[in-house]
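Appendix B, example 12.
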Amino acid sequence: MTAHLLLVTLGPVQDFIAQARRTRDLWYGSHMLSELGRAAARALVGGDAQLIFPALAKNDPELAPCLAPLRPNGKPPQNIPNKLLAEVPSGTDPEALARTVREAVMCFWRDDLAAPVKAKCAKLLTPNLTDDLWNEQIETLLEFTASWLPLGDYATTRRQLEQAVAGRKLLRDFSAWRHQRGNVPKSSLDGGRETVLAPPEQRRSELVHKYRITDGEQLDAVGLVKRAGGEPDQFVSVVNIALASWIACADQCAKTELDALREGCREIGLARVSRRDLPCAAPFPFDASVFFPNRWKTVFEEQGLPGYPNVWGSQYVSPVLRKVGEPYPYVACLVADGDHMGRAISSLTSAADHRAFSCALAGFAQQARQIVEQQHRGVLVYAGGDDVLAFLPLPEALACAEDLRNCFATAMASAGTNIASRPTLSIGLGVGHLLESLGDLLALGRRAERLAKDIRNALAVIAEKRSGNTYAWRAGWDDGPASLLHKATELLAQRLSSRKVYEIANLLERLPKPVQGTPDSWSGVLAAEVRWALARTEEGGLAPEDVGLQLDHATDYPTLHACVREWVERLLVARTFARALPRKQGRSKANEVSA
């Protein structure tokens, strides 16, 4: 028997991760898929296969399972992708190995991940839940696909495997549910599965508060594993991430008041975050929702806290807000993806070259966690290969994106010399309100990523305001987009009123659209109107050059119109970042949670 190349993929991925209402749903869903990939990798090397992607050797410590955010040594586990490629030696049956891998993954999912959750949440489950119903929901989740071919020319064999797996994924298995109870609510996370929870009045209150399950919320077996798969204090809420820079400022400017607030949080038993390893959680290891006065009542009700919310908030939170002002309630969802990865992988002509490429990607993923969490006060949800998903406070988001891009370029430069073209990294930043669902925030980040991928090697930002307005802007990395937005942010904070940006935006709407046949004489009108608008400022007048806008009467009208339009879009996006900068004074009501 000859050697074979074996490709294994696990799913579901994107839609499954996006089914989240709490941060713990999102993080544990991603972590769970990584652990299933780790189980597949263990089974492959246990069958004497040599992993190519990810490039893990048989005794690599990263093959050991890790059910918590950190390993016993205090380090986070390496994310394992949902696609694994391995070289099966001659004498080993690839079909038998694929079946062994599938069974190992299924057993790990059923026995190591799902069963403990069912046991510890028994008092939340409906009394008429049968083992058959639970097992059916658990066992129908996993999508396992495998394909293998005799190893001839490496690049050709790998390409044929990819095509075979892609073709199989076009087919869907639609097996009917056999153990439905009927006439019960569907899951709030996955409408295709029935709830396994008892009616609200029968749920044990301590577990309800622990896992933040509201009366109107229903969870299926898979959703319950995502919600209760880890301990609540392991996960940092999106609110804490969004406010990390603001809290760091408060820790310096209102230290006495913040110390008193911490003590007040301990006294009432406010939900804690036990992740001192994360800079975003260290200064204030409690639920940061209390920094918004219109959230006090909700926080007390959700967590079953004693006392009167407004009295407690006025005593402990208001002194901090009087010194630092209310925080800006928006957060950034960062989604990054490599450009032309398929072309780069297709140019690899041997398993050794592919392993070197895999090692470079693994190194980038490890650095990505350091960049996001330790350098920029964010939280990494997933970093596997060229894919990154993270949440960041707005003041850190642009610098983080640029650091990730530079780190990826360095990793690709070290990936070996047999790559036809070096992949680049496109990054999308979706900026949304804290009260938006995690699914909506993820969708916003992915929309921004697709906007960047349209031109590739780019950064794109989409800011969606609760008022209904949406602002989008993008630029290639060669144009220095992060620097352009930083300069625009400083300009808005120091010299230029945002009203003036809106005035110029309205001007563009009043002038003719730049269609074919529009006289270029309109270029002079546009340039003159913009100059006149900038000259009439409270600061005594500004020239277009002062605000980073180049106006040339000789430029044709469509080009000049597009130039001004790009400037307006950049300034409107930058306005969101400018408003998130921590200040030592109160803000307007536009910064309230309901804004």
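The chain has 21 helices and ten strands. Confidence is low (pLDDT under 50) at residues 585-595.
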